[in-house]
Amino acid sequence: MTFAEAQAGVGTADAVPTPVLAARTRGLRKLYRNTVAVDHVDLDVPEGAVLGMLGPNGSGKTTTIRMMLGLTTPTAGEIELFGARLPEAAQSVLPQVGALVEGPGFHPFLSGRENLLRCAAAEPLLESAAIANAVDDALERVGLGAAANRRYRGYSLGMKQRMGLAAALLVPRRFVVLDEPTNGLDPAGTREVRGVIADLHAAGTTVLVSSHLLSEVEATCTHVAVLHQGNVVAQGELKDMLEASNAGLLVSTPEVTAAVDALRDNRIPARAVPDGLLVDLASTTAPEVVATLVRADIPVHEVHKQRTGLEDLFAQLTETS
């Protein structure tokens, strides 16, 4: 059965439908002489998702992205974009992909607009008559409209980063790949990039974002893939991963000591914390905790799961893997 058939569910009667993938890698590996940069990476990027690719420096994020875009040849493994195998389908598939990888590179003595006009002229999906408007729209979208006629060599680091983003957005894309898109941006610029990503997501575009800013990933991404030492150590929906890492229940009650004693009498680990008590859910459930407290006549004012942030989850995955 082909990958496209698997995506459509052909031959899998009564099976749970397989999510449609914008990008997929299997056994992806890259060696640089004796150095293993990426080692058997299996990555799924669901169509329409905003996937944050996280990992310490040297974890293989940029190398994986470069192989997915045909910029680097894998040592081994398979890559598919929209169900089509690369590099065989590169000519038909890659025009649907916009990318900002390892920082932008433009002609220093040309203006921002002149640089983008040259990029637009090479776009196979952009008709000649639409080039001027596409360039102006892209410049305005990333906040460079007022600086469009300034020479690129005079741009700040943040402005150069915006130029790279503008080049990736010259035409509507099915898939946008952004490698550290907020590098060099001030807080206002970072918010603007977050807005661009939100707009792309709302339009149904799949976005892959590689970033060191965990707070930005948590604010913008629907899915996460964590790389460590060249391997994917975890991937999935962000909310599910955060909930799965939560093993605690915060309970608000005026009778903290009595509540802790009642739970411990029922072999449920609990301890007092400033906001009430924290219950370990490793061997029980939230409803059982509440039922135990109610049976003991302990008033329960509020109950909610302890929320692990992405930073804590990232640390757990990369320190124990």
Automatic annotation (TrEMBL):
Entry's Gene Ontology molecular function annotations: ATP binding; ATP hydrolysis activity
Keyword Methyltransferase appears in the UniProt entry: no
Domain spans labelled ABC transporter: 23-254
Source organism superkingdom: Bacteria
Pfam families recorded: ABC_tran
The keyword Nucleotide-binding appears for this protein: yes
Keywords attached to this entry: ATP-binding, Nucleotide-binding, Transport
Record-stated family: Belongs to the ABC transporter superfamily.
PANTHER family listed in its UniProt record: ABC TRANSPORTER, ATP-BINDING PROTEIN
Protein name: Multidrug ABC transporter ATP-binding protein
Protein species of origin: Kibdelosporangium phytohabitans
Organismal lineage: Bacteria, Bacillati, Actinomycetota, Actinomycetes, Pseudonocardiales
